[in-house]
Design a protein that fits this description.
This protein is mostly helical and 508 residues long. The chain is built from 22 helices and four strands.
């Protein structure tokens, strides 16, 4: 008599293997090198693709179920925020300018990351990293969409939100984040993962998302902070992918070490320069501040990053080049960046302002070595000019760094009173840089950076709508007198003051 046997249920590890590694195959119609041409040309040697470890064994069906649950919770909060006029609960309308900068400067990068990881996933012959990249690609697309939805409520009431995609491609200060991702996406797949998954996601992302989302919560912006909570589990996977790809390359062949080290040096510095936008947001754009940029740098890079690179030292990896310069600049970079934008806010799609006395007292306490000596006198002079009806706007076009594309406003590492200026000659042309880090990056692969689309150069060449400021702003799609100029007297401030006045009258 036959006995019926119950089919044994596959374990999670077996099921995951069948639905990921089990889907790969060796090509026959075309050689593998022809199908996957990009994962060898960088010089990285991989001897065993199966050695790739998957810390998160998440199948696609489980992924969709997991993400859909998060979406339901996120959009419930976003809808509640909109229906209850959540914008009236923020601390001050000045805060909205931080949202404008994030939405135009960071959210488009999420979409760029989506495209970059999809491309990298296609070009890894190993199934493990291919699946990891494809899953992250979907995450990044979700982040772009949910950020736009979370912040879109502000577009109903405040200026500067109306054309973020167009602005991302054209506006001068947005060329800084755009060039960062253009640089990464035109690299090979291993360098792309080192740039984005490791250097940005693992080493530097806490300096972006933790202060920003904490700042949103502290300033009453529950729509934005809810997006941050919704994205945190995704970010945990992304950070793990970043560390895994580094260890995978280093363990496969000792010849990979110098290549990986050079990429770490490059992408640390590129990411650090990009974070100057975050530094000024933390110190100047949040009406209620959570911590200073200096404190965040010490916590998230010097302490956490120091432990990370100590761990990687067993592979022959040292901390990234010029990290000591970043340590010297941590008490000045936010002030220098805010000074640049205060100079040029008539050409920006958000407002700037001078810190009030309470805010300057906070800055003085957080930066006792530099603020009162160097930056307070500058603000006092600008305040005097403004009181006389001569609010200072710089009407010249600044020289830009060829690599990071930031105006040359940063100072010498050992002298915060002297502008840092470096240059290189290549094929009879001279190129200018804001730092030794940016110069080193250019000197190693100049052919890549001589193609930089530098906004100031393009304006001088007549490629940005015309020679007059108004023509350039029209080309940017900046609404003059509404999106730009000083916060004081702006339509945003007038509307906010009216709302607060009406609220007081209703309460009395």
């Amino acid at each position: 008599m036959s006995v019926a046997t119950k089919a044994r249920k596959l374990g999670l590890k077996q099921r995951y293997a069948l639905m990921t590694r089990g889907l790969g195959w060796e090509t026959t119609y075309q050689p593998m090198d022809t199908v996957f041409p990009y994962d060898t040309y960088e010089g990285i040697k991989i001897h065993d693709w199966d050695a790739w470890e998957d810390p998160f064994r998440l199948t696609m069906d489980a992924y969709w179920k997991y993400q859909s649950e998060k979406e339901r919770k996120l959009y419930a909060v976003i809808d509640s925020f909109a229906q209850n006029n959540g914008h009236l609960g923020i601390t001050d309308a000045r805060y909205v300018n931080a949202i404008k900068l994030f939405l135009t400067g960071v959210s488009p990068l999420e979409y760029q990351a989506h495209r970059g990881f999809a491309h990298a996933g296609r070009h890894f012959r190993g199934v493990g990293p291919r699946i990891a990249c494809q899953m992250q690609s979907i995450d990044e697309l979700r982040h772009a969409q949910t950020q736009v939805h979370a912040m879109s409520h502000y577009n109903k009431y405040f200026d500067g939100f109306h054309d973020k995609t167009h602005m991302h491609d054209r506006v001068w200060y947005l060329s800084v984040p755009k060039s960062f991702f253009d640089d990464a996406m035109t690299a090979g797949p291993f360098e792309f993962l080192t740039a984005i998954s490791f250097s940005f996601e693992y080493v530097l992302t806490n300096l972006l998302f933790v202060p920003f989302m904490s700042g949103a919560a502290y300033n009453g912006d529950m729509a934005t902070v809810t997006f941050g909570f919704s994205a945190q589990s995704d970010e945990a996977r992304h950070m793990t992918l970043g560390l895994e790809v580094i260890k995978f390359m280093l363990e496969q062949d000792e010849g990979n070490t110098p290549i990986v080290q050079r990429w770490m040096d490059k992408w640390f510095w590129r990411g650090y320069r990009l974070l100057a936008l975050v530094a000024m947001m933390m110190d100047y754009m949040l009406p209620k501040r959570i911590m200073s940029w200096q404190e965040a740098w010490e916590m998230y890079f010097e302490e956490a990053g120091g432990a990370l690179f100590e761990d990687l030292s067993r592979y022959g990896i040292r901390p990234p080049k010029y990290h000591e310069v970043a340590a010297k600049e941590k008490d000045r970079i936010s002030h220098e960046a805010w000074g640049i934008f205060y100079n040029y806010t008539h050409a920006a799609a958000f407002h700037t302002w001078l810190p009030n006395e309470d805010e300057m007292a906070w800055l003085s306490a957080k930066y006792p070595k530099t603020f009162d000596k160097i930056y307070r006198p500058r603000y006092e002079q600008w305040a005097k000019m403004k009181a006389e009806g001569k609010r200072f706007y710089n009407n010249t076009l600044p020289q830009l760094c060829t690599t990071c594309q930031i105006p040359m406003g940063f100072t010498e590492p050992d002298d915060p009173t002297t502008i840092c200026f470096r240059s290189s000659e290549y094929r009879g042309e001279r190129y200018h840089f804001c730092s030794d880090g940016c110069k080193d990056i250019f000197d190693y692969e100049p052919e890549k950076y001589i193609q930089s689309w530098l906004p100031v150069h393009q304006i001088y060449q007549g490629n940005c709508g015309g020679a007059e400021l108004g023509q350039v702003l029209d080309w940017y799609h900046i609404n003059q007198g509404a999106d730009n100029l000083d916060y004081d007297g702006s339509p945003d401030q007038q509307l906010w003051d009216k709302w607060m006045s009406d609220r007081k009258k209703a309460a009395s």
